[in-house]
Design brief:
six-stranded mixed β-sheet; five-stranded antiparallel β-sheet; about 550 residues; D-Maltodextrin-Binding Protein, domain 2; Dipeptide-binding Protein, domain 3; 24 strands
Length: about 550
Amino acid sequence: MSSSTDTNAGPTPAPRARKSAVPKVAAAVVIVVLVIGAGLYVFRSNLTGSSSTAGKTLIIGSTATYASLDPAVAFDTASVLFDDQIYNTLIGYGTTTYNGTTVGSLTPVPELATSWVSNANGSVTFTLRQGVNFVNPDGSLGPVFNASDVQFSLDRIITMKQGADFHVFTFLNESGIHVLGPYSVMLVPSRPYPWFLNLFQLWVTGIVNPAYINAHGGVVAGKVNTFMTNNAMGTGPYLLNSTSTSQIVMVANPHYWGGAPKISKVIYEITPSATTQQTELEGGAINIALNIPYSQMSSLATYKNVQVSSGPTSSEYYIGLDENVTPFNNTLVRQAMEFATNQTELVKYSTYGFGIPIQSVIAKSIESYTPAFKNYSFNPAKARALLQQAGYGHGFTTTFYYTSGDPVGAAIFTILQQELNNVGVNITGTPLQSGTFNDEAGHGTFPMFFEGWVNLLATPEDGLFPLFYNGNLGIYGNYNYYNNSTASHLLLTAGETLNATQRDSMYAQVQNMLGQAAVEIPLFNLQNVIPHTTNVHDLYVYPTFDMYFDQAYMT
């Protein structure tokens, strides 16, 4: 394995998105997307339920409050949940069928853009929706939405440069935003990027009102607008009504372009105890519980008034093997760990059936997925032989890190400890608070660790480049300290290749190299699981962990 540190060829890295949290676009030809009938899609328009269901209140129980309501700043799951309701992006996510159930998909569908053209050079021309108003927090009509709002919102993202925005400002700059008319805008990537269109599905590109922003702090380069942390004004289906340390309330936007939501009020309650959430869900005091452990889902499924909805995501969970730390700087030792680990047992008993085993470093649903780790079947004898060959015939002692309070990580440690003991490897578990874990994991001092990566764009580039490019060593995402100049060159080239066949070939090569190097132990793609009362209908589960309440209705 090469140990080159050639970091000057790639984009400036951004700190890694941790476990919190889009389809392929072949732009080699001009593709015209026209919307003939809104009824073809489920895209924030209330096409289900009846008027008799209006006036309902949806109550959510969660242990987490939001960090910021500003879409250009939000990065945690709770904050994104609110942004999904208050703001619109140019394009949204569609739906599909999984195991006979309608779930969210990554397919682009119209939102504030009614149609778009993906051009041969990778640029995209959007035709914008007319007749849309921003709505003031008090429910009164605000300014009419147009192309200048798109330009302002995207310029703002590029200027502020906050954590989640790196997906946008890496591939778009101010000179690439062209207003062609009141309801037409062309966006040109700053460098070739096959998934440029899909950036405009991300919550960070939610369209804000320039007058509201400028009246409350404006836009300052590299700075957060503190007013927008707790205030919001968008074009979305819900309005922010009130916030407190225990409860956040949203009410239906009566002027919403997609039709007033069937659920008139959403109450988000901060419920610190998962046990309390379960009790309240069973009794109907809350309608959605966001923090119940997987171990309790089978019990919930027996409640006559509770339904457990789930669907695959673009996430990847794994056991990291830090090549910066002895003995994991030895390929044979890492390969021994692959054979010593019973993936089937780990997934089965840690995720209670909600983990989908994977044999690569990206989920099966991601373009270019290659089962590069399939030959590492559970084989303790092979593991012992490799350890002997590596000079560790008597085994060794190491430490395994995971996030405290994470029942999946704790279960994996318990099982892994038993399995590795069978080949002479003794591991000690060290749980750390989430913030500490995230701060320290990239410093190259965790020999083994359990970690997850939510692939926000659901692309091979987003799943591979941050984690394995050698310019991202350490805190920028490459926690395994995998340093291979050939793989890094392939990742750079593939990420700018518009031809899907050529791109997939390069990503397959990288995955096979990672498999041969045993860079980590891939475990599973974790499903998005939402337990809710049975009187909540059409609450679609999205692979990005987004949730849209205006699609739902209650009886």
